[in-house]
Design a protein that fits this description.
This protein is α/β, with parallel strands linked by helices. The protein has two domains: 1-38, no CATH class; 55-257, Creatininase (Rossmann fold, 3-Layer(aba) Sandwich), CATH 3.40.50. The chain is 47% helix and 7% strand. It contains twelve helices and five strands. Helix 6 links the parallel strand 4 (145-150) and strand 5 (176-180). The chain is globular, with a radius of gyration of 19 Å. The structure holds zinc ion.
Length: 320
């Protein structure tokens, strides 16, 4: 899709009231409009933003950084991966997507890596206030729900993103979700990795031209953590993408409509989860303590979240 065609289609669809699946011009045409719709905020003009907000006042903030992702991947994997997932979700479920934030907590001790806050620094002197201000500006600009999706996921980054989301949900009175993308795909077998099978498969699907498995070399692979990237496939990437995007799309559609009571239930569950992640090391142990059994205990997190079964999330978090 070119930007021009995408924008023209969106305007035509908006004018005809067919954005996002109205049946007035036939479902096939609407589906095409939705698939090609420009949702990237930086490429929208004022009237298009107003129309998009009227349709669905949700905004996505993809998060990542610049970090070594093996010899076979580009260094922007985390951010561009999160961005591509958000764009697909917004086209399906509604909302707009901000440019990805390149910068966060931690990063490998490898070349071509920008570390803005130290790996285990849950106090995150730069990342936390930046995320807070982004949320405040999004609310001030009329958005009623925020999804911060991080494609970069050291333990401290995950804690900072989720904790900030919980606090901003409370302070702003709108739902703010802050999660790594892999938490939405735990039940389909992706438990998070670094430049290994999961991330590489996602990139093979989302940005096929960027992956060069032929340049990976032989194990042990430098700066790769998880299942052998040579087992990656575009098909696996599509399967993970479809699951993550479907759940994000449901959330994007529904979150702005949540009642205050639902918001409270959501915040309580997310707060319980991040509190467990933050307190499990008891101020001294390994920051990953609450992740030891997360793949099984939190397996259905994505399913529960999309189904608004917040108490199930809260109860699962207690078992971490
Ligand atoms: Zn990554």
């Amino acid at each position: 899709m070119t930007d021009t065609i995408g924008r023209r289609r969106f305007i035509a669809a908006a004018a005809a009231g067919t954005v996002l699946g109205s049946v007035s011009q036939g479902q096939a045409a609407s589906a095409q409009d939705a698939a090609d719709r420009e949702v990237r905020l930086e490429f929208l003009r004022p009237r298009e933003i107003v129309a998009a907000q009227k349709q669905c006042p949700t905004i996505f903030q993809p998060l990542g950084t610049i970090e070594w992702h093996g010899l076979h991947n580009v260094v922007g994997v985390d951010a561009v991966k999160a961005h591509a997932l958000c764009v697909r979700a917004a086209r399906t479920g509604g909302g707009v997507v901000t440019p990805p934030l390149f910068g966060g907590v931690g990063g490998l001790n490898e070349p071509h890596t920008f570390i803005m806050d130290a790996e285990e620094n849950i106090f995150a002197n730069l990342t936390r206030p930046w995320l807070e201000q982004l949320c405040r500006e999004m609310a001030r600009n009329g958005f009623k729900a925020i999804i911060m999706l991080t494609g970069h996921y050291g333990a401290a980054q995950q804690i900072v993103v989720r904790e900030t989301a919980v606090r901003m949900s409370r302070a702003l009175g709108i739902p703010v979700l802050g999660t790594p993308e892999y938490w939405l795909a735990l039940d389909v077998g992706y438990t998070g990795d670094h430049a290994a099978w999961g991330e590489t498969s996602l990139m093979m699907h989302l940005y096929p031209d960027t992956v060069r498995l032929s340049e990976l070399g032989d194990p042990p692979y430098q700066g790769v953590g998880g299942r052998d990237p040579k087992q990656s496939s575009e098909a696996d990437g599509k399967r993970l993408t479809d699951t993550i995007v479907a759940r994000l799309a449901i959330l994007a559609t529904n979150m702005p409509r949540w009642t205050e009571q639902m918001l409270d239930r959501f915040v309580e569950a997310e707060a319980a989860l991040v509190a467990r992640q933050m307190t499990a090391p008891r101020g001294k142990g390994n920051l990953w303590t609450a992740w030891r059994n997360a793949a099984s205990v939190m397996k259905d997190y994505g399913k529960h979240l999309a189904a608004e079964e917040f108490e199930a999330i809260r109860d699962a978090a207690a078992k971490l």
